[in-house]
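Methods — Computational structure assignment.
A single polypeptide chain was analysed. Its primary sequence is given first, followed by the predicted tertiary structure written as structure tokens.
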Amino acid sequence: MTKFAAAVAGPFRGVTDSRRLIVLDTNVVVSALLNPLGAPAQILGLTLAGELTAAYDSRILLEYRDVLRRREFGFSRRRVADILEALEGDGLSVTPRPLSERLPDPADEPFLEVAVAAGAELITGNLRHFPPACRAGVTVLLPRGFLESLRGR
């Protein structure tokens, strides 16, 4: 477990009965690294600690890599590499099918497609990107709402 994972997972460690499958929208991963005290950081910490399992495909990993390496964020390449290695190594790789309903932004479709294929919940910082009519039965939550679901609220 990384120091980051141990530090942010603290209050939620051991809360899950089994490893819940999740898909992390890129904005959640970025937010986790920008604010280590926020809900996204707690979710990423739980994932890196093995309490949650992140589902992904090659498109999602590529987007994480591309976005997290942007100079504007100033994230350490080593830290980014460690996080991506952990997500890929401990996560669930899936081969999704195209959605029957298009999303407003096609760049968001890989996240929903992976969630459908894995039977996972999708955690995003922007629910408008995933209109209810297009969710294909997937539960889409904001980070705070997901943490509340872990607590059983």
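Note: The longest strand covers residues 20-24.
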